[in-house]
């Protein structure tokens, strides 16, 4: 009988990793918190192990922004500009 582990290892599979957000690079605003960081780390770990994996997430053109505190203490938001391609 064939060992299931060996049979699986001998066959090359591709994994689709679906997440509501994936953080791969801070310059690409596709995440807002811990879930995105965890998803990005999972995808990086799969790449390090040589596992074929596609990351699938939502990509919004708007909605992300950078926060800045002004000298008077007020918070200002500046829209994050980027072009998903």
What does this structure look like?
This protein is of the alpha+beta class and 85 residues long. The chain has one domain. Helices cover 26% and strands 24% of the residues. It is built from two helices and four strands. The protein has helices at 4-10, 34-48; strands at residues 14-18, 52-56, 65-69, 75-79. A two-stranded parallel ribbon has the order 1-2. A two-stranded antiparallel ribbon has the order 3-4. A hairpin with a 5-residue loop joins strand 3 (65-69) and strand 4. The model has no long low-confidence stretch (mean pLDDT 84).
User: What class, by secondary structure content?
Assistant: alpha+beta
Q: Helical content, roughly? A: 25-40%
- Biggest sheet strand order reads 1-2
Total strands: the figure is: 4
Outline type: elongated
Low-confidence stretches: none
Order of helices and strands: HEHEEE
Q: What is the makeup of the main sheet?
A: 2 strands, parallel
The overall number of domains is 1
Mean pLDDT: 84
Task: Outline the fold blueprint.
Layout (H helix, E strand, L loop, with lengths): L3 H7 L3 E5 L15 H15 L3 E5 L8 E5 L5 E5 L6
Parallel strand pairs: 1-2
Antiparallel strand pairs: 3-4
